[in-house]
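Weekly modeling sync, notes
Attendees: S.R. (lead), two postdocs, one rotation student

Agenda item 3: backlog of single-chain predictions. S.R. asked that every request posted to the team notebook include the full sequence so nobody has to chase files. The rotation student volunteered to paste the first one in as an example of the format we agreed on. Action items at the bottom.

Example entry:
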Amino acid sequence: MKLFRTLSLITAMLAAAALQAQGLVLVEQETRQGKTTTNQIQLTKTHMRAESRASGESTAFVFDEPAQTARVIYLEKKTYMEMNRGMMQQMQQQMAQVQEQMKNLPPQQRAMIEQAMRGRGGFPGAPAGVGAPPAKPQYKQSGSDRVGQWSCTKYDGYQGTEKVSEVCAVDPKAFGVTPADFEVAKHLAEFLAGFIPQAANQIVVAGTTADQGFNGIPVRRTTFVNGK
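Predicted structure, as returned to the notebook:
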């Protein structure tokens, strides 16, 4: 499966003064298995909302940074699911219990359980090697390209020797924004790392090599699964 995303940055650019009060609006096209959907992302200093139909139904993901709470809202069903720090602590406690029980298992059986846990993205708080999710990709610069009207720098992402992603990133200055305007997105990535580690790497931020593996805002991202 090949997941291809193009971020149409930024369809609703605001003046610098207004930016501080109203935030950013981003529009992202996502193509998955030949089907293209459009997602909208809104960011303010303390909140982030992402609307999508990628799963076949309308959903909104809302992050409230001051409350350290995220909600997945199923708009058509009018229901929602909530994640918060309290739940994270409970899952970490459950993980500690699982680890303690696994100590008494035969090595072969323990290895099978750890493999199954990794296949499900790992458990929150799991140390490396005990059902932990795969490490973050390591990116290597691979040239340049053009996405829409923007020239961008290409990076290939690897986990070990396997290529898992490609990104093409643009300097935030090209859009009249700064990394500070994406601070809430960085905090969301940190929050999600405790619940859905594999999703944390997909958050759109204007980062650096130190915090995301490449410089700038990804205006195109391609994800590979099993080498395809």
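Discussion: group reviewed the output briefly. Residues 7-20, 123-131 have pLDDT under 50 and may be disordered.
Action items: rotation student to repeat for the remaining queue; S.R. to check formatting next week.
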